[in-house]
Amino acid sequence: MLLTWLFLKTKYRFKKITGVVVCVAGLVLVVFSDVHAGDRAGGSNPRKGDILVIAGATLYAISNVSEEFLVKNADRVELMAMLGLFGGIISAIQISILERNELKSIHWSAEAALPFVGFAVAMFMFYSLVPVLLKINGSTMLNLSLLTSDMWAVLIRIFAYHEKVDWIYFVAFGAVTVGLIIYSGGDRDEEQQPPNAGDDLHPAVKQDEEVNSGNQSKGTVAGSSKTWVA
């Protein structure tokens, strides 16, 4: 939201700001639950993990704001084409450097390739629909909506790994949901075009102008008739 205000000159109403504050409060609750909870299995360094997550989210926000600027000021199809082209090249370089050993250890088969294909299809659909969402609602709404993805991780931990989840997670999810509802309910301030000068006139004044205009037209016709008779 700060980036769109600084670089895209977007103006927000108080209702939208309130929704963002509530969503951020939910995110703070998620971080706080990682720090204070001692009754469940956690990572070796949860604070470091939270810092890395926040740093990654900040970089992702910068990426989305930049993409919103390009979507609204350039060709959307060209943006998606360049994103797919250079994204594929950069991802291939990244895999060959950072995950080369993991890639060699995979025993390729139909069952092993199916998850990769599913992930590729999901990413294709996601990055194809993101420009549409950025065009309609902006990058702030997209980033706030992604905060709900934490609840999918919570559900996986509960039902797949049978781990105990801190109750603050559910409070945080409720706060994020309420914040999204508040944010989506408020409209972004738009630059309104000034009304025409004639639209602000009183109906009686406009009627007098129409009568005078009609009289002038009649006088012009009468003068023309006299000229032809002469």
TrEMBL record:
The protein's name in its UniProt record: Solute carrier family 35 member F1
Disordered as annotated region, ranges: 189-230
Biased composition, class Polar residues, residue ranges: 212-230
Keyword Cell division in annotation: no
Subcellular location: Membrane
Transmembrane parts of this sequence: 47-65, 77-97, 112-134, 167-186
The keyword Membrane is assigned to this record: yes
Basic and acidic residues compositional bias, start-end: 199-209
Principal location: membrane
Alphabetized UniProt keyword annotations: Membrane, Transmembrane, Transmembrane helix, Transport
Pfam family, one: SLC35F
Stated family: Belongs to the SLC35F solute transporter family.
